[in-house]
Amino acid sequence: MTKKDYDDIPGTFVFDADRSRQGYHLNMFCSSLRLAKNREAMQADPEGYMAGFPMTAAQIEAVRERDWNGMLALGGNIYYTSKLAAFDKINFQDLAAMMTGVSRDEYRDMMLNGGRSIEGNRYTSEWEDK
Amino acid sequence: MAKVTAGVGVSHVPAIGVAMDTGLTEQPYWQPVFEGFKFSRTWMKESKPDVIVLVYNDHCTAFSAECIPTFALGCAAEFAPADEGWGPRPVPVLKGHQELASHIAQSVILDEFDLTIMNAMEVDHGATVPLSVMFGDMEEGDEWPCLVIPLCVNVVQYPPPTGNRCYNLGKAIRRAVDSYPEDLQVMVFGTGGMSHQLQAERAGLINPEWDKRFLDLLTEDPVAGSQIPHVEYMREAGSEGIEMVMWHVMRGALDDEVTEVHRHYHIPASNTAVGHIILENKS
User: Fold this and answer.
1) pLDDT tens by residue, chain A, 130 residues
2) Chain A contacts of B83, Cβ < 8 Å?
3) Can you give the pTM of this predicted structure?
4) Are strands B272-281 and B3-10 parallel, antiparallel or unpaired?
């Protein structure tokens, strides 16, 4: 793949055409959960419901494990995966806490204190020592 | 003739809608968010727009991964609030102005902006939250005080349209409104932002200095603002901060020189810095 000018942003998956292609069926699965009848079908038989979408084995495993960053790494997009989170009754803020590996309260406190600073978070090179 | 009177920039954080829908607005967490819209609600009542052209983005609600239009103009008679996974928001259905919408579509397409025309579309929090914060709580049976023409912009799959393209689309919309024969007061809303990142390990990123500069440029030097490259939004304002390109559509529809009558900025609402600005045309 050609070098992209956004490849060096740390902790970020830019949902471009390459990721969209990779994550298409995963994202279609997630967005289907927007509708109540599909949520009911997923509730009743998760494996059977997932089988209706030709996802890769790795994508299915990431969904099973609710590996939220893993889904993004496999082409998922946050606006789609948030529909799966909504299915689990997880809101955007708690989902963000999970993806950043801190507790719900720690994340909420970070936001109340002004959020994650831009300093030290612009370039992947700044994260190399972490 | 129809006339563009003012522009509004406003975040559309879904949690703000939830706070209003569940009566949390007086809680200490939310009170400062809503305090900044008190002026705006009075101003809306006094300004009495007939139509709002509401620039927003869909969050994989009306559009799935199957179809991703860069610009989609709502030309339907009405737009129902969608179920985004939590059930539809309890707010009124948006009523469109079909003739003006069709006129805008025809005018800007002949102006070489190749819009997608939506004759049926549900709208998500991207469209309903800005109306809620600007008009206040709605009771069952209420209608929104004015008609709304939603203009949906892709900011989900990279790349969204450039800031420059958005700014120039705003100018084309202005020409369309200016040539519409009915006497109408038209406002343009640009929504989304401000700095925020919802995804992965950098989630929670907020950059108030950058946001302030963006708002300053929007008022004083919109052409410079429209030239901000995509990578700068994503790096400096978070991957979802790129929604701010939509504010340039609003700014493009206004006069080159405007009066900033109100600004509000607060951290946080959920994962996001809330930004809000009201710009009036001087003419």
Assistant:
1) 578 999 999 999 999 999 999 999 999 999 999 999 999 999 999 999 999 999 999 999 999 999 999 999 999 999 999 999 999 999 999 999 999 999 999 999 999 999 999 999 999 999 997 6
2) 34-36
3) 0.97
4) antiparallel
Question: Catalytic residue at B125?
Answer: yes
Amino acid at A34: R
The distance from CA A29 to its chain's CA centroid, rounded to whole angstroms, is: 13
Structure letter (DSSP) for residue B3: E
Report the alpha-carbon distance of residue B93 to residue B250 in Å, rounded.
23
Reduce the DSSP state of residue B210 to 3 states and report it: helix
Instruction: Indicate the helix (H) or strand (E) that contains B14.
Output: helix B14-21
User: Residue A73: closest CA among chain B residues belongs to which residue?
Assistant: B200
Number of H helices and E strands in chain A, helices first, is: 8, 0
Q: Which of A80, A107, A114 lies closest to B267 in CB terms?
A: A114
B97 belongs to the catalytic site = no
